[in-house]
Write a sequence for this structure.
């Protein structure tokens, strides 16, 4: 123990040191209570300060990521709304096409076609004007990558395929067939009618499964092809209608004509046919006589040469039914070209076979042999060329056009609903992302709070303790400062 000293008051020094510590503790408690934070600077808790700072960065990133995910969700919802509008228009157009594929007066067909045209134009407008903050969403140009996490690489990508009316459709040879002359249509119908294929023969690399013999109507072959659509993507349908007559050896001498009334087509008696020199020229003359009544029958006749034979082919470009009645009792010579009695070809039962592939830009449909190709397309080739049939180009001005429009619309609806389904799944995922980000942010904030937030109950107790110590320390400093006076007492008594 130090003796009594005037120059060195150790009691005062110790008391002042304790008072300083108590004042520092009181100041820290007051700061924590006033700020609500127990870490107000790195000096308070270096490790805790670093952890809390990293957590704050994560919390901020999660908040912005939630905004990003909500933005992506808004884009998906905007696109989905427009897709639904397009789907409604497609359904309306399809209903009109179904109506147009049946019998209609010219006036009704014009009205139906006008409605379809307006609907396709409206679909085009929807695609062009569906935007989000200046970005067009449905024309294939939109792709977006969204940061949905607080760290690098935590992204979500979104893209929407091109849904414009010029990008939806099928590849088909319909336009080629529809634009043919009656002679070309007759040649194609006769070529397919005369052809045959075996069950092992293929279209699009897939076996047809059924054998079809010569002189089989196209409707049976169309059924075979469409049974495989799910595997090949190829759909077939009939364009026009044709009744193929018997094959007569062209060079056989035949100097007789055919009497009027020997042939009746769709209830109209055909006039007399002038004599020819052989079956070939007589067939040409008979076609002329039939075509003189086309305005009444709706039927056009053409001669088709097949090897050494000549066939008369009756066609109706609208696909309507054709009935031919050969009366050999009037003139037996009519039996050279048509079977005795009445032959009826039901509407669309033996039209030219149009082929369509569900994907735009498909250049051809392939067959395993030229014989198979002839039995289906009417031409002896291993491929049939296709061209694009877009939604924008569709009309229902004829029954065949309406059939094509139905096929295009059905394929467009499949494409649209597939895109909408994908977008819907992405929207569902984004909603889950938003929820998950909210949970992570909440939990991270709670974790940060346990590190940085003041425990008011404990800190109030600490402040009360520090206040008492400061008050006591202040009193003790005063007492310690009086200690040197004891020396004066000793001096007075000396």
């Amino acid at each position: 123990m130090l003796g009594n000293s005037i120059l060195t008051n150790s009691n005062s020094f110790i008391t002042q040191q304790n008072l300083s510590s108590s004042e520092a503790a009181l100041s820290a408690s007051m700061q924590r209570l006033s700020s609500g934070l127990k870490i107000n600077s790195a000096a308070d808790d270096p490790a805790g300060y670093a952890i809390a700072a990293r957590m704050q960065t994560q919390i901020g990133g999660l908040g912005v990521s939630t905004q990003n995910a909500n933005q992506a969700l808004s884009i998906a919802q905007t696109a989905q709304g427009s897709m639904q509008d397009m789907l409604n228009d497609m359904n309306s157009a399809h209903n009109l096409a179904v109506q147009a594929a049946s019998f209609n007066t010219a006036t009704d067909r014009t009205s139906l076609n006008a409605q379809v045209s307006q609907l396709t134009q409206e679909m085009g407008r929807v695609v062009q004007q569906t935007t989000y903050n200046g970005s067009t969403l449905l024309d294939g140009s939109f792709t977006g990558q969204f940061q949905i996490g607080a760290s690098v690489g935590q992204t979500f990508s979104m893209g929407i395929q091109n849904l414009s009316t010029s990008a939806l459709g099928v590849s088909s040879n319909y336009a080629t067939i529809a634009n043919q002359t009656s002679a070309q249509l007759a040649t194609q119908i006769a070529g397919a009618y005369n052809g045959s294929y075996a069950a092992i023969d293929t279209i699009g690399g897939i076996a047809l499964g059924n054998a079809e013999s010569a002189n089989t109507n196209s409707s049976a072959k169309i059924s075979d092809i469409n049974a495989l659509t799910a595997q090949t993507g190829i759909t077939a349908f009939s364009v026009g209608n044709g009744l193929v007559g018997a094959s007569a050896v062209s060079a056989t001498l035949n100097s007789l004509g055919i009497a009027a009334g020997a042939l009746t087509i769709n209830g109209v008696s055909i006039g007399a046919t002038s004599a020819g020199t052989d079956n070939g020229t007589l067939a040409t003359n008979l076609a002329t006589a039939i075509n003189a009544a086309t305005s009444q029958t709706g039927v056009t006749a053409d001669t088709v040469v097949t090897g050494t034979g000549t066939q008369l082919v009756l066609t109706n470009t609208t696909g309507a039914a054709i009935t031919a009645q050969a009366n050999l009792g009037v003139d037996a010579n009519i039996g050279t070209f048509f079977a005795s009695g009445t032959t009826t070809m039901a509407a669309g039962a033996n039209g030219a076979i149009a082929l369509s592939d569900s994907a735009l830009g498909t250049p051809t449909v392939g067959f395993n042999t030229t014989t198979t190709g002839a039995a289906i397309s009417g031409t002896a080739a291993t491929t049939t060329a296709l061209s694009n049939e877009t939604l924008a180009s569709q009309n229902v001005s004829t029954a065949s056009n309406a059939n094509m429009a139905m096929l295009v619309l059905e394929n467009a609806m499949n494409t649209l609903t597939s895109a909408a389904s994908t977008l819907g799944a992405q929207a569902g995922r984004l909603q889950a992302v938003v929820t998950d980000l909210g949970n992570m942010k909440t939990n991270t904030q709670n974790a940060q709070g346990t590190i940085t937030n003041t425990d008011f109950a404990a800190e109030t107790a600490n402040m009360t303790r520090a206040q008492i110590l400061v008050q006591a320390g202040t009193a003790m400093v005063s007492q310690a400062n009086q200690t040197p006076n004891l020396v004066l007492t000793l001096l007075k008594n000396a």
User: Anything to note?
Assistant: Residues 50-168+410-443 form a domain with the f41 fragment of flagellin, N-terminal domain fold (CATH 1.20.1330.10). The two ends are 23 Å apart (CA to CA). The chain has a mean pLDDT of 90.
